[in-house]
Amino acid sequence: MQYKHRRPGKTHLHILLVDTSSSAVSGGALENVKGVIRTIAKQAYLNREKLCIIQFGNNNVSLVQPPKRPPKTFLPIENQITAGGGTPLRKALKYTESLFRRWNLHQQHLERSLYLFTDGRTNDRIEDIKLSGQLTVVDTESTVLRLGRSEQIAAILGADYVHLERC
Question: What's the CATH class of domain 13-166?
Answer without folding.
Answer: alpha beta
